[in-house]
Amino acid sequence: MSLSGSIILVLVCCIAATLAPYRRKCSSIVTVVVAVVAIIWIAQRNIHVVPDTENYVQNFNDTIVSSSAFDVQGNYQAFENGFMALNLIVKRAGMSYRFFFAVVAALGIIIMLKAYMVQTKANLLKKESRDALLYLALYLGYFGIFYGAIALRSGVAIPLLFLGSAYLLLNKKVAVVICTILAFQFHHSIVIVAAVVFICDRFFLKNKGKFKMWWYIIVIIWLGRVGLILNTLMVKVMTMVSQYIPFLSRYTAIWYTGGVMGDGFLSKKNILFLLIGFMLIVDYPQNANENYNKTMTIYMVGLTLTFLLNEFGSGYRLSDMLLIYMIPLVHNTIMNKNSRFKQRDRSIIATLIVASQFVISLRITNIVLP
After folding, report:
1. In degrees rounded to 5, what are phi and psi of residue 63?
2. Apex 316 CA angle, 196 and 230, nearest 5
3. pLDDT digits over 95-129, tens only?
4. Cross-strand bridge partners of residue 72
């Protein structure tokens, strides 16, 4: 992704967020144009940014066109069947890995916008005050860039489960099962997140006071460095067990934080999502419906896991799958005319959230920032 392209994408999304509270209606054409621009720039990114991307390129190049989706060369057979099938379809069409990247990014965006429409039917989003462009900007800022552009399997699996959870709000069981199975075919770990979503659909908090208390507990977990305690304990257990099961020793190192995420006690991303949680509690709607509370509960579970796993090297991959549920919640706050925040304040908040996400994601992927 070139510097100029990244700047254009960030500016467009930030302007969209800034103007969202003032717009009466969002143009579908503008939303499509922004989506296309994002897809094109994501497809053109530097493939040497992180190892994930290089592995996916090699996997695509090694896919045998004349074979089934399960036949690939090298050590890439561990990738899920759905992801391999998508590789094969694009490869058979005679397209390059750049086009494959574009397809993955496009799928993520299309699925998220479909979820946007389903959430409107479920009355999670208000039809009279919804804004697809703001919704897209909130997605692209972090999840669309990091997962749609780098962690490709999750980039499809997360939106698919997100769509499935939207159908769950409408009690459309067949659609929920289809989305969940498809998501599993792109990333097996999604089954853990699916379990959380299904549990939260049955058991969820229903008032501001309980959400506030939960947020305070999360802050205590963070300041008390509970994640570090868990990290230290897990490393000791893994080290001890690996003495008897040698092959497990290679997994011990992954429990330590480090690498491109910059995760840990002072993670900028974690603090951003913690502040978003605080904002959502401050502006908790007096007439919050059941579907809003279910979604808020899922987000709070994700926030809890974020700070329990913030000292684990790959812990964010799990918690991020739940943090994405902040999108409809933040969208509602920004577009709510009866919000506790004034129109100008909502404009500033929207801009800061989108801009902060882009700064974090572009720093992580090393596309723009060092």
Report:
1. -65, 130
2. 85
3. 888 999 999 999 999 999 999 999 999 999 987 78
4. 63
